[in-house]
């Protein structure tokens, strides 16, 4: 076994051990939690060892970057599941529907319209999360908290399948109150899944009900940037 695969296996085991510990503290099973390995900015050579170590669910932030990497990888590993976890422009909706298995960033009516049209045209219903701007931060994407019920209703009307809610809490401060608020909103709307928690806070997110965690650095190490 190569050093890269051994390192990937060790990192994956460490994350899964933390997931298991957090899940057991709240009477849950880690098997019910989806670990999404966020591979944005990672080259194929960095992704492959993690696949060889057993990881099968990956997340990308940008449609174009995913288009450059994943079609070839998925030919090698056809059981890969690919999630879009970053912001989505309406003009990329058709590409996203064609490439991804799940979209985490539905956050506005115009994007909903584009996604519904793309799903109708492609004959493919891609499950979505509604991204909530849980900290009301101007610089972040996400649906305003007050607008979430209307967007949920519109998605159901448009036959866009909804899995749950997604958030990225403010970088400063304790994330737990934001995770708890997202969980409360999901319960009120009858949505079962919560996409929340990243490398620095996924343990807290799991204890507050996360069903999907988006982990990059803890699996890949420090992220390379151009």
From TrEMBL:
UniProt KW keywords: Pyridoxal phosphate
InterPro entries in alphabetical order: Ala_racemase_N (IPR001608), PLP-binding_barrel (IPR029066), PyrdxlP_homeostasis (IPR011078)
Pfam families: Ala_racemase_N
Keyword flag Transit peptide: no
GO MF, any single term: pyridoxal phosphate binding
Cofactors: pyridoxal 5'-phosphate
Entry annotated with the keyword Cytoplasm: no
Domain (Alanine racemase N-terminal): residue spans on this chain: 16-224
Record-listed N6-(pyridoxal phosphate)lysine modification sites: 40
Family: Belongs to the pyridoxal phosphate-binding protein YggS/PROSC family.
Protein role: Pyridoxal 5'-phosphate (PLP)-binding protein, which is involved in PLP homeostasis.
NCBIfam families: YggS family pyridoxal phosphate-dependent enzyme
Cross-referenced HAMAP family: PLP_homeostasis
Stated name of the protein: Pyridoxal phosphate homeostasis protein
Organism: Sphingobium wenxiniae (strain DSM 21828 / CGMCC 1.7748 / JZ-1)
